[in-house]
Amino acid sequence: MRADLSALERAVSDIPAPGLLYWTMHGLGRWLWPFLGGIRVHGRHHIPPAGPYLLLSNHQSVLDPFFIQTWIPYPIHPMAKSTQFAGPVFGPVMKRMYTFPVRRFQVDAHAVRTTLRYLEAGHAVHIYVEGERSWDGAMRPPRPGTVRLALKAGVPIVPCAVDGAYDVWPRWDRRPRRGPVTVAFGAPFRLPQIHDRRLREEALPGATARIMNEIRSLLDLPTSDPQSAED
Amino acid sequence: MAVRDVLWACPVCRTPGGIRRGKWRTESCQACGTRFRRGRGAAIVAERGTSREERPVRDWLDGLGAVRLPTARPDGTVLGPEPVRVKRSRAQRALRFGSQLLGWVELYDKPVKGAITLQTDRLSFQPEAGSPTLWPIDALRGIQPASSSLQLRLPDQLVSLKFPDGSVRLWTRVLGEVVQDHYRRSGREVFELQPCVRTCLPSSAP
Predict the structure, then answer these.
(1) pTM recorded for the entire structure
(2) Which of B147, B148, B151, B197 is most worth mutating to test chain A (most A CB atoms within 10 A of its CB)?
(3) What angle (nearest 5°) sits at the alpha carbon of residue B94, between those of residues B93 and B95?
(4) Residue-wise pLDDT tens digits, A131-140
């Protein structure tokens, strides 16, 4: 196990350092958006000076990565659906933004391992807990897989909420518009680290509610019930 | 990505799939003629004659709760035929950054144009050229809507259906109902559709 972990840490340390593209994209939310509607941020002091931690947020718009990561002064690893890496332009950009893929329709064991590997190596990982962008701007309950991962990792969780991004670019429209965006970071909290699968399943409902409440309460986000979220 | 993707039925006349793409990317209901477009922020404006109503998406969606989904016609067709572009993925490639294996990415074939029809026991895809493909309902392992496409997991492939004129959410809803009914007929209940179709006996539903 120790040898395995060393190999993982070595693999993580082989990741290229942030380049010009990273820092340019990283600064877009902070430096560009004030001219395109304004961006307010609350709770920056809650962002830990370093990992490991899980940043869990809602997902309103395709622009959320720019609005959120711009406030984190070091690279963080966002999880994104694997199909986004397929394009000849967007794919390489995503990699250079330290994003890693997760395949849908399955429990992607490799994505889980990658997440744990980053956390074990002291990095931060960003997951959009709803698993997809909101259709109507309301926050949906976290995906069970994300909550299971949080319980398995046992690292601090930094809740983060974005509001206004849905009005800027809802997922059903082709173009963004100008508009004010608010980002809020909450105080880190911990869920118990549970290795036993059965116990983790028992803890799932409570942990789901806790994560949802921690994120939602930051900006008093509207929520949608799981039934209406089915489609 | 369009209004019809989020409003899977016309909120004015309640026709499922009524909103279609028109000329110049305008969208209007084929049944009542109401035009829809994005208003302030992410609100949706409905215009008909001189009347104009602007509401947030959530309010429009609340009004769709009582809309009845299409049911099977005598020939077993539930929905369609609908123009569609189909992409299939049967392989994956490794994604590396530096020397690190980040994960795996599905490789999709080129899209094939055609028409898709949903029946009570299968999806039939008729390409513009070539023979039709049938996907039985009980071969579906997962259903996942994206912003403008519906993705299906089958035992040996992923299939992505993009509807140039129709509503992806309507297809998702109706397909979900068809899957539920299909398993109900064989005495099982579907307790999860997305991302995986998971069934159980009614007595052991979680």
Answers:
(1) 0.88
(2) B147
(3) 115
(4) 889 999 999 8
